[in-house]
Design brief:
The chain is α+β, with helices and mostly antiparallel strands. The protein contains 42 helices and 28 strands. It is elongated.
Length: about 1100
């Protein structure tokens, strides 16, 4: 904030003075022409706090990688024995490896920064008279910012409109108590009655007409003018003066924690530093696991070198050192980290296209292990495009909106009136689900209307007209509402802003020309607002009526309007109805209202109650309101008069049912946690397939707890929840605390859950869940607490993210198997090769160190990256979530690695033996590890054959590993073409060309003079190609046989998701049923091996029954 820009600090100025200083207007905002100039003048609205990783940190991390350390040692040894060619090549490889790794990780960090920016706090600003949402970085001084509960304040603002606006400034001032904002500039110096006249009179915490950047709106709403951005804000000034880092516990070096604490603290700090650079303490779980693997392999390389030295009785001439270098290089998958980094970057890009922004790479790995999804209803499972379908006014008047599908257009459709609708409702026959569970009376999962068709009463409907009762009801719904509805002449259509529920109610009021703006234009003036609070589920406003108003209400008195959850509003009502129809609230009346609510809710409608109260005299907020408006609110909202109920329908998204069924097939159970009425929740849950239409198809224990109210669930102790056969599939009237309790209940059962949320109060559950998923339309606090943000709020985007997470996990398994199995083969070849002794008694390596390096760095890398780009397999969403404890190193991967490594090592070893002993009688020459001579021809030809064969086997295995179990010749079971193998191999173009080019690249490395004998220590071959081709066939046949054994015996198989009488997302039995309700809990409580494999069954993991079988 430029001091010369304002005559005084903005908190001392009036709103018009701030407007003038910044050349803006509070009713229109900045113009589009002003914004670019201001952005150029002030720059991006960002804090320079150094959160990004420095390039040199990335470089040192790459240099300290275990893979590179082995190469550095090998290079040093090569220089030591004066093998200049090998040392030079190793130096080049180190530079190349570190350079590529550095560039990839640097790009990955930049991409993650960009992705985090997509989900970073945004600002709602007014420009050219239109409200738009922009990234915080684009906010400039003079912008008019709109604030609501849960928002992060984007910049320092001079508040000019505040409705119970309260901000949490603890991060800035240290004060735990939220600060209520005002709009005037007549602030007095604390402890005196003297008005503040200069900036030094007040600290930043006392400038209560200013909202500060990075603080959070805890209550209410408001608007303000941006007075400072970026490093010019108060928090920016603090960031510029200090940038302290939080130190981990136990790192103190003070003796006040004990005499040994300085030693302990220094040791832990040293380990933090080393672990950070070596990748052992920071990074995603998979990255840390692979870093640990790298160092295990590093020590294995040292062990192998010791073995080589021991075989030669620690007589270590140059030849033995070269052999040790070969074995050390052979065990290290040099390209593993680079391929992993590229894979994750590609996966985040793919998810971004699917409207999923990954804020934390650990979530990318975790998605594949999700066993349960706890999802909101509104806007996620449903369209969030709400339409008022029905309104009930006492005693029994029902208004119905017909022929309307556009939630924004009040002119579409018509409203009808049924005066006898309430009387016509009959209590339906209660169904005996216990009787239905008998084999004689069982009824399958079909719509209730098919099992039992109650007679529908005939009703007479007429076009609705505005009556005095309806007029008051419309005033309440329009004024107790923050949404706006207007017709845009330029766009030739209706435009709306606000929450979907409030938009629906405002549109309903507009159908009768009773919109909020039109009423306020007639003189209705708001004097107080008590915003919606998720803990009490209601909102109230206080208005002063104009003279000669339509309601014939006295302008000398204020009037209170309230709307909210039916039960919460009913508790505050003393009467119902208006005029002659008004009567006291009694138990019978209350029951009748609740019956009407249940009727609406059973049709899938969200039901809200609308009430009012005449206020005696003009309302003015008492002094207690400054300390906290809870007591004031209680006074305002008591003794209300119920005006009616409104039923809002939010149609399910078309794709939701199919996505839920996909989850069921994948062993993932879907729970719906919603704030709606239980009947509404149950109706929608039935429609989208979360619960069956007939709960009788479920086991008795499961059916009883399938749908619960949050109050009932919250009353249960942890022990009682753990004793439930299954956790609820639907929890209605859900509070934020209920979500947290559900997370803990799932975690105790060993589940791995994803939790969605959008509000401020959802932040604790989002941060506590294994995978927190925030809605793009949600609050900034929720986004900051989540690891993933859905930009489109759709449930199927969650499923797409899980599928991508599983695809990435499978592909990581494939390229790890591809890289490590070749390392196992190379080690077997070289260890067995210790027995090949030349004329001087030194071991002759079957393949040179540089040849191994070439294979590991060049030949393997591109096919490995090609495997990372493999599309999702057909079975990826037909098997249960992967074991999170074992990660990518499952039993199948470990066994495959050993089997294929032995097979590869055996084939290459036999090739060396056939060439040297079959053709040349076992002549191993002299000094063949260092240079070429006539006596080394047999060894050099054998090495060329081994090099060519090993290259081909590694390349062919890349095609084989497209599927770990299916035959390479029938990768796609749906492809029945005669030469399907060619189509399947071509499906991954990158992998196809990587393998094909790799196969061809063998020839120049074998035949180019100088390169072959001086670098790779092999020479030209001829008849050996027959052996190479033969051994390649043997290798492929061996892999196919091992795959066939796995398929036919079922060993090492991923368990299938169990079949059941009903599956979530089922459409009445036409789909294959694949869900998952465990019929027995006894197995899950034992400590046998069988029980351990079923752990996630008790967690609600659908896969467990199959593991039991």
């Amino acid at each position: 904030m430029a001091e010369s820009q304002y005559p005084k600090h903005p908190f001392l100025l009036s709103v018009p003075e701030v407007e003038k200083a910044l050349d803006t207007r509070i009713d229109n905002g900045l113009s589009t022409n002003q914004v670019p100039k201001l952005q150029e003048q002030y720059g991006d609205n960002e804090l320079d706090v150094g959160n990004t990783i420095a390039w040199y940190t990335i470089f040192i991390r790459q240099l300290c990688n275990a893979m590179v350390l082995v190469l550095i040692f090998a290079m040093a040894l090569s220089f030591g024995v004066q093998d200049w060619v090998e040392a030079g090549v190793l130096a080049a490889v180190i530079i190349l490896n570190v350079g590529i790794g550095f560039w990839q990780e640097y790009r990955a960090e930049k991409k993650m920064d960009a992705l985090r920016a997509l989900s970073s706090p945004s600002a709602s600003v007014l420009r050219d008279g239109k409200t738009s949402v922009i990234p915080n970085a684009q906010v400039v001084p003079g912008d008019i910012v709109l604030l609501k509960m849960g928002d992060t304040v984007p910049a320092d603002l001079r508040i000019f409109e505040a409705m119970n606006l309260t901000c949490d400034e603890s991060s800035l001032t240290g004060e735990a108590e939220p600060v209520e904002k005002i709009t005037t500039n007549d602030i007095v110096v604390p402890g005196t009655e003297k008005p503040a006249l200069s900036e030094g009179d007040l600290g930043i915490g006392d400038r209560i007409n200013i909202a500060y950047a990075t603080t959070i709106v805890r209550k209410g709403r408001g608007r303000g003018i941006v007075i400072a951005t970026g490093m010019k804000t108060e928090v920016g000034k603090i960031a510029a003066s200090t940038n302290k880092k939080q130190r981990k516990a136990g790192r103190s070096m003070s003796t006040k924690h004990g005499h040994l604490q300085p030693v302990k603290g220094a040791g832990l700090r040293t380990w933090d530093f080393i672990g950070k650079f070596l990748g052992l303490t920071e990074g995603t779980p998979l990255q840390i696991k692979l870093s640990k693997l790298a160092y295990i392999l590093f020590f294995c390389a040292i062990l192998l070198a010791i073995i080589v030295f021991a075989v030669n009785k620690f007589n270590i001439p140059t030849e033995v050192i070269l052999y040790a270098i070969s074995t050390g290089i052979a065990i290290i998958p040099e390209s593993l980290v680079a391929v992993l980094t590229m894979t994750m970057v590609v996966a985040t890009a793919v998810m971004r296209k699917a409207n999923v922004v990954v804020r934390d790479l650990s979530a990318l790995e975790a998605l594949g292990g999700v066993t349960n999804i706890c999802s909101d209803k509104t806007g996620t499972l449903t369209q969030g495009a709400m339409i008022v379908k029905k309104a009930w006014l006492p005693p029994s008047n029902v208004y119905t909106v017909r022929d309307s599908t556009n939630p924004s257009n009040p002119t579409e459709g018509k409203v009808t009136f049924s005066p006898d609708d309430g009387k016509a409702k009959k209590e339906e026959k209660k169904r005996d689900y216990d009787q239905e569970r008998t084999t004689q009376a069982i009824k399958f999962d079909v719509p209730e209307s098919e099992n039992e068709k109650p007679k529908q009463p005939k009703t007479s409907e007429i076009d609705a007209e505005v009556t005095p009762e309806l007029r008051l009801f419309l005033h309440a719904t329009a004024l107790c509402n923050l949404a706006t509805v207007r017709y845009d002449e330029e766009a030739d259509g209706w435009k709306t802003t606000g929450e979907p529920t409030e938009i629906a109610i405002q549109v309903f009021a507009h159908r009768f020309d009773h919109g909020k703006k039109s009423l306020e234009a007639k003189g209705w003036k708001q004097v107080a607002e008590f915003p919606f609070d998720s803990s009490i589920k209601r909102m109230s406003v206080v208005y002063n009526a104009p003279k000669d108003n339509e309601l014939e209400y006295s302008s000398e008195n204020s009037i209170v309007f309230t709307k909210g959850a039916v039960e919460r509003v009913l508790d505050l009502c003393s009467h119902i109805g208006t005029g002659d129809a008004q009567q006291p609230m009694s138990e019978d009346v209350r029951d009748r209202i609740l019956d009407q609510m249940t009727d609406f809710a059973s049709q899938g409608q969200r039901v809200l109650a609308v009430a009012y109260k005449p206020w005696d005299g003009q309302y003015s907020a008492p002094e207690e309101a400054n300390k906290g408006d809870d007591s004031v609110r209680a006074q305002v909202e008591k003794n209300l008069v119920l005006l009616g109920l409104v039923g809002i329908y939010d149609p399910p998204r078309r794709e939701t049912t199919g996505s839920i069924h996909t989850c069921a097939e994948a062993g993932i159970k879907v729970h719906m946690l919603t704030g709606d009425h239980p009947e509404t929740a149950k109706a929608i849950a039935r429609e989208i397939g979360i619960i069956p239409r007939n709960l009788g198809v479920l086991p008795a224990g499961v059916a009883e707890s399938a749908v619960m109210k949050a109050t009932d669930f919250d009353k249960l102790s942890d022990e009682e929840i753990d004793n439930l056969q299954e956790l609820p599939l639907v929890i209605a009237r859900c509070a934020p605390e209920t979500k947290t309790k559900m997370i803990e209940a799932l975690r105790r059962r060993g589940a791995f859950m994803a939790m969605t949320g959008d509000g401020v109060n959802d932040a604790p559950s989002l941060s506590r869940a294994d995978v927190g998923i925030a809605m793009g339309s949600g609050s900034d606090v929720a986004k900051s607490a989540a690891k993933i943000v859905l930009t489109d709020d759709k449930f199927n985007s969650i499923v797409a993210a899980i599928q991508e997470g599983r695809r990435m996990f499978e592909n990581i398994q494939k390229f790890i198997l591809h890289l490590l199995s070749s390392n196992v083969g190379e080690v077997i070849l070289l260890i067995a090769g210790l027995g090949f002794r030349d004329q001087d008694g030194f071991s002759v390596f079957p393949i040179s160190p540089l040849a191994i390096l070439w294979i590991n760095m060049v030949t393997s890398s591109f096919p490995a990256f090609g495997l990372s780009k493999e599309p999702a397999s057909q079975e990826v969403m037909r098997k249960p979530p992967h074991d999170r404890k074992r990660g990518v190193f499952s039993n199948q991967i470990l066994w495959d690695m050993i089997v294929y490594g032995i097979l590869m090592g055996t084939c290459t070893l036999m090739t060396f033996v056939i060439v040297v002993y079959g053709k040349y009688g076992g002549d191993l020459g002299k000094d063949c590890n260092r240079k070429y001579s006539e006596s080394c021809i047999p060894v050099f030809r054998a090495r060329a054959a081994v090099f060519a064969l090993l290259t081909w086997l590694i390349l062919l295995s890349a095609w084989e590993f497209k599927s770990i179990r299916r035959s390479m010749f029938r990768l796609n079971s749906d492809n029945h073409k005669k030469f399907a193998v060619f189509h399947d191999l071509w499906s991954n173009n990158f992998l196809f060309w990587a393998v094909l080019i790799g196969l061809i690249s063998v020839f120049p490395t074998v035949y180019i003079p100088g390169l072959n004998r001086n670098v790779f220590k092999h020479t030209n071959i001829s008849w050996e190609w027959g052996v190479i081709i033969g051994m390649s066939i043997v290798y492929v046949v061996g892999i196919e046989c091992w795959k066939a054994i796995k398929r036919h015996t079922g060993i090492l198989d991923d368990h299938k998701v169990p079949k059941s009488a009903w599956s979530q997302g089922d459409d009445g039995g036409r789909r294959e049923r694949t869900m998952s309700f465990s019929l027995s809990r006894s197995f899950g409580r034992t400590k046998s091996f069988l029980a351990r494999t079923m752990t996630s069954s008790t967690a609600g993991n659908p896969a467990a029954d199959d593991r039991q079988a």
